[in-house]
Structures are given as structure tokens and as C-alpha cells.
Specification:
Distance between the termini of chain A: 40 Å
Largest sheet of chain B: 8 strands, parallel, barrel
Helix content of chain A: 40-55%
Helix content of chain B: 25-40%
Shape of chain B: globular
Shape of chain A: globular
Distance between the termini of chain B: 63 Å
Order of helices and strands of chain B: EHEHEHEHHEEEEEHEHEHHHHEHEHHH
Largest sheet of chain A: 11 strands, mixed
Low-confidence stretches of chain B: 325-329, 445-452
Radius of gyration of chain B: 22 Å
Largest interface: A-B, 79 and 78 residues
Oligomer: heterodimer
Number of helices of chain A: 16
Strand order of the largest sheet of chain A: 11-10-9-4-3-2-1-15-12-14-13
CATH class of chain A: Alpha Beta
Strand content of chain A: 5-15%
Mean pLDDT of chain A: 91
CATH architecture of chain A: Alpha-Beta Barrel
Number of helices of chain B: 15
Number of strands of chain A: 15
Chain lengths: 448, 452
Amino acid sequence: MTPRRQLHLGYNVLGDGMHPAAWRAPYTNPVGALDPDQWTHVARVAERGTLDAIFLADSPSLMGGAEGGPGLPFEPTVLLSHLAAVTERIGLVGTVSTSFDQPYNVARRFASLDHLSRGRAGWNVVTSTDASAAANFGSAAHGARDERYARAEEFVDVVNALWDTWDDDAIVADQAGGRFADGGRVRPIDHHGRHFDVAGPLNVPRTPQGRPVVLQAGGSPAGLELAARTADAVFAAQASLEDALAYTTDLRRRTVRHGRPADSIRVLPGLSFVLGGTEEEARRRNDELNEIAGEDRLGTLAWQLGIDVTELSWEAPLPDWLLDTTELSTAGSQGSREIVLNLARRDRSLTARQLLERVITWHRLVVGSPEQLADAIETWFVAGAVDGFNLMPDVNPSGLEAFVEHVVPILRRRGIFRHEYEGTTLRDHLGLARPTSARRVARTAAAA
Amino acid sequence: MSARPQASIGVNVLGVGCHSGAWRSGETDPAGLYDVGFYQEVGRIAERGTLDAIFLADSPGLFAPPTTEPPFMGLEPTVTLTAIAAATERIGVVGTLSTSFNEPYNVARRVASLDHVSGGRAGFNAVTTYSEAAAANFGDGPLPDHDHRYARADEFLDVVTALWDGWEDGALVGDVATGRYVDPDRLHAIDHAGEHFSVRGPLNVPRSPQGRPVLVQAGASEQGLRLAARHAEAVFTSQLTLHDGQRYYADLKARVAREGRDPASLKVMPGLTTVIGGTEAEAAARYARLEELAGGSSSLGQLAATLGLDPDELDLDAPVPEVADRGSFNTSHGFYRSFLGVARREGLTVRQVVARFQSGHRLVVGAPEQVADTIEEWLLNGAADGFNLMPDVFPSGLQTFVDHVVPILRERGIFRHEYTGSTLRDHLGLARPARSGRRSGAPWAAGDLRAA
């Protein structure tokens, strides 16, 4: 009997949880997102559940969020280094924008994290759409989407090249002979591009994983192209099985077009959930959270759609002009907007309230019992629409604890999720091969 | 009896040891500078000795092919210090970051994050970076000149400080009942529009446990001194003799006073390279062995680079050459001045300078008492508030210091027996800063940004 294909599960922490009211829930610490001990706790719970990775979203700004909640305060590479020190196996993925930092700095921080965590680091590449972030970096208006992605393409190429500047066997450490490294195996990149000039080499040797894992989250065509060419995994955002299947088919086709095997990229959409012992309990918990959040949720939806909140009403469908528009939004996150519009277009009678019952914080929402959540996961997985999910519990730590206690055992019983970690690196967990250095590939080709 | 002054002691974790021969000594993992276990062990030993802080130097580039010895730095400091903080409980963690090759918002945020996750133990050593190798990783232009780098650094530190002050104490409310997470009247944008930066703020990290992380500075040029007097709470300097130390100390403290600050609000901490043996003779033998392992060449290379010369241009047995136009050197002025001052006064040859001033800092090769004597002498004679230790080899050289020098300092009443506080400010005897009055923007309204 061949072993069943295995599911991959990340944990998108989002501070106190994905629900807009998470920090106000009666069973949570309102300032838990700022408490290092809470972070340590949730990381250890996630590791107990043998999840593939902890995932940190990010924006270098307050995102208009401080009055309504904690947002994403801590810088991801710093926080992940803390989490690496208090765990042993779980992967550590951080979001860093290509819009507001330099490739040398980013390559170096993730390479450092990969060394310090002994092979557990991943970088989620995003281009920033957040106007409040741009204002912290001297640009009143950030670039148009094409420009942002052109910069991101070059940024990722430079980072990958820097990660390859030391060969795997560059360090000799011959104490008797007085030779530390083989100088011929540490080389500059001398990159001169449209956005960056970077000499290299990186001042960090090739990392335990060869290169840290690269994730990508964009849902626009430019984002898909970047993912297909460079990503090891995508943090996608689909709210229906049809959309997920279409997305994955499209992405795999593009991946092959870039000369990569179709299965060299893991598709992991977000999955937000509200769990209860029974479906009824889950609904009660969901209602309670929604009640606390009140009008905030409508504001969040408007923000996501890129429209004014006055255009929305709880009991009315989305405005026709928005559903009929063929224009892409000029800024903002294309993926997060489309996920809602696609649902609404399929059933134009859905009210704002009903939409918010199916999708929240830009991702698929499941409200139900452990069995129902396991079913929701397995259905998409078996259909081949996904390789797994990036889990977004409603409230931390209780939502995560419930998942690990009650859903993970079901997935294990069904034979689609590991009982224990089989490897030590994030690449091991994701079933990704250790990449050969591009320089070595080039040398081998030249020698052939 | 009035209390004796207390020494502040940091440890500068430079590679696997500050001596170029350290990696071949058999006392360390030669590739330890890329291993988390190495850093955490060093952190624990330093904490056992109740030292004030772990200090990481940095430059975002590789100076030279690491063929004959490992580099002295590699992993990014904020990420590395976080790993050290997680393995320790009290010791401070100070990281060097370049103001030339970073954005102030990112730096303010990373260091504030470190301050939060470490429970108030973070410091930021601001340097302008004088390495062409680093500059080439951030554009195709030449390294910006000294004046320009320092003008940028000055504005950079204004922005970082203003961002750290954007959240007043008490701005974070977290009121579950009303749904008020922050008090908007106590949260401020900075609306900074300057020559080098335009930063709206506020920072997305609430005011950190120390109020502000500790600001450290290392420059010794005129602009560096001005910057230190304006912003720094500790300076990592490089005076080689008591006399030079006293002059520097008096000059900098006077400048601090002229900025309207309490001179005690800035701690002067010269580097102190140590090679310690049970006796002076043992220490000398240890030093000789390390020199032999280093081949003598790398210290020479360092001196040559500091002088802006090629190593081949230096005659080992001739006096250190006069360099006519110092202003033309786009290098580290502090090291340069220390070397030349001493070398000229004492008529030292290049070979003598290389032997005496390992790593560009004061070198003591001796018994534990002799190391303690130097520390005490400088502390009591107005030359230092403490030192940034640079042991020859990690962890062995640090362990010897902790086991044999620290007890002497304690006996003499000039170093703590245990930590009396929990933050780096507590250790250094620095007050928690009040919110700076500078550049406080209007209360920040989220609505503005949503509409933007």
C-alpha cells in the first residue's frame, strides 16, 4: 500500500487571532499580542500539534488598526528568532515586504534565522499596498502594481543569488593548516539591475536548508507569475472549492511554464475557523465574537474591497457597480478583493452579513465542530485543490489549542497528517528538496 | 564612606575571539560564529558574571575573502541577540546597526521589538559604516563621505527617538468593555520631513519596557563626538592609554553638559582586549601562542586598513608612517587617532603597534589582578565608566574573566555581586527616559490613513 499524500499545515498567528474582536474575547489576554510568553505558549502548542510552520503576517505600519486592536506589532524576523529559541522542530515563516527594505538586509536576516534555527526559516515575499506603510518610508504614493512586482522580481532574484554566494562546502575550518574557507567557493554576485546594485557576497554562509523556504502571497497575475517562477509555497486566498481548484490549476500550469515540476510548489490557502465542541457551540462562539466586533466588521470588509463603508449595508448585497466592474483596483491587495467579489458574483443575492459568514479576514471561514473542520480540510485536500492550509484560529491561544487537541487527532486517524515530525527542517516538513546552488548548476552545465 | 563608582562591563562578541588566532586555538568551535549554541553559551557565561551587556559589532558586508581566518561578524545582530536573550534572563543585548544602509522605521521597530521580547534589555549601537565592501551591497555609488554619513546619522537618530516616543506610557489601554485598544490622545504620529527621511509614524510597536532602548554610539571624529553628545547613552570608544582615556572622557562629558544633558547620563566604555593567564608569564605565553597561530599578518592588515594604506607599504621595523592629509581618509577616525597618538608619543614601530594593540583597542596581557588593576585605574581616574571587554578567545577567555577577574572587582567594591534590576538601563544606571518633547506630532487618527 502506498502511503497517502500528506497534508501541510501552517499557523498564521495574527496576534490575538484572526477575528476582529479576538483581543476583546472573554477568554483571551487583551494585550496578548505584546506578551512574549503568550507567543512562546502558542508556538509550543503548534509544535505539539506537529504543524509545519508558524507564519507571521506583517506590515511596517499601524495599518489603521491601533484603535481597533493590536495589529502586527513585532518585527517578524526578531519575533521568529525568539520562537526558534523556545521550540525545536516547527518551521518559522516571516513576511517581509520587498517595498521598504534592501535585498542584502533581507537575505541576511533570513539566512541568519536559518542558521540560528538550524534550518527552519522561511520568507514570505509581499509587495506592500498599504499607504500608511509607504508614508513611513518617504514615498507618499507607492508604485503601481507592475512597478511593485518588477521590483519584487528583481529583489527575489538578488536574495536567491546572495544565498548561493557560499558553496555548501566553502568552509574548510582547517585549524592546523590555517585555512578557514576556500576562497574560490565564496564569490560575489556583482548584480546590476534596474532597481538594485549589489556586489555581494553575503556575509553569511550557505544555510542549513541550502536556502530558506520562499513563500509568496499575491493573488494578482503578477503575483502568480512571481510565485510560479520563484516560490516554494504560496499562501493563497480562496473561499470556494471551485476558486481553489482554478487557482491551483493555473498556478501549476504557470510553474511548469517556468521550467519547474508542477509539484515543486505547495499551495496553502488561509483557513480561518471558529471551533466548538459541536456545531451549535461553534455558532454560539462565532455569534458572540461578531457581536463584540459589531460594526467593525463592516468597516473591515469595506477596507478589503477598497470602497467607502457608506456603500455597504448589513442586509443588502454589494453594490451592482462593484460586482459589474471589470477594472482591477489600482492599489490594494488584488487577491483579498477578488476573494469576496468572486463569492458575491456567484450568488448576487448574498448580503454583506452573509458574505461575512463565509469569508473573514480575506480567507475561507469554517464555523463548526472538529469533525466538520476536519471534513472541510480533507475535502479540498482530496480534491487536489490544495496541499494544505495556513490555519487562522479565531482567538489565540484557545482556538489553536482546540485545533491541536481535537482536529489534529482526526486528521491523523484519517491518515493524512503526520503523527510526529520526520525531519528537522522546514523543507523536510513541506516535502521540498534541498536546492542545489544555482552556481553549482551553472558549473555542472558548463562542464557537461 | 561614599560608595565607590561601579564599573559597567559589556562583552563584545567579536567572532570566536578577538584575537585572529582564536579559531585555531583548540578552545573554540572554529565556525562557532554561525552557531546558535555558541552565542547562547557566551550569553550564559556573561550573565553568570553579572556583566551589563552582550555587544555585537556589525557591518553589512564581507571585508575580505575569509580564507585565512573566519570573519569577525556574520549573522545579523538583532536576530542573533534575540536568540541570546531567549537563553538568558538579565543581561543586556546591544546590537550594531548601520544608519547608512537601513531605514529608521525598520531599525526603530526591530530594536523596540527586541526590547519587548527581551523584557527591557535592548540597546542600539548606531554606526555610520565606513566599509566600501558594505556600500557596494547597497548601490553602485561610492561610500558616502564622512560628513554626509554623519548628517544622515544625526537625522536618523532623531527619527528613531521620535518613533520610540510616539506612544506615551499609558497609550496602550486594552479596554475590553469599551473596545478601546489605545488612547488616541497618547499616540502620536511624528510627521518627520527632513533632508534624508520622510517618516509619518507612529511606530506600530508600543512604548517598550525601557521607555526607549539604550542608544549607543562609537564614533570618535568631531562629528561622531557631536552625535554622541547629542544622542548617546553609552559610547564604545578605543583609547589606548590612561592619558588619552582621561582626555577623551573629559571632552565628551563636557560636550554632553553643553547639550544640556547630565554628564552621568552617558557612559564611556572603551574597548579592552584581554589575554589572561594564571600569572603574567602564563598570559604572555598564551599571547605568544595566539600570535603565532595568527601568523602576525592579520593585525598588520588591520593597521594598514586603518591607515588607509596597503600592508605592503608598511615597514615592520620602521615607525608608523605619518599620513599627511588625514581628512582625505574615509575610514574610522577613532581607531586612527588612537593608534597614531600612542605610536608617535612612544616612537613605536609598526611591529610594536601591531603587537600591542590587538583589534584596535587597549590590550592587557596579564594575570587577573593586572586586568582588574587596569579597570580600577581607569574607573577611578576619570578615564572610563566601564569597559567593553574583548576576550582573546570565546568562550574560554570570557570564562576566565568571569571566574577570576570578576571576583576581584567585586572584592574591591567596584562591581556588582548580583543584578539589582532587570533592564539594561538598570544595569547601566541610566534613568528611564521621559518622552522627549521634540517633534511630538498631533494625536494620531486612524481615519486619516484609512482614507488615504
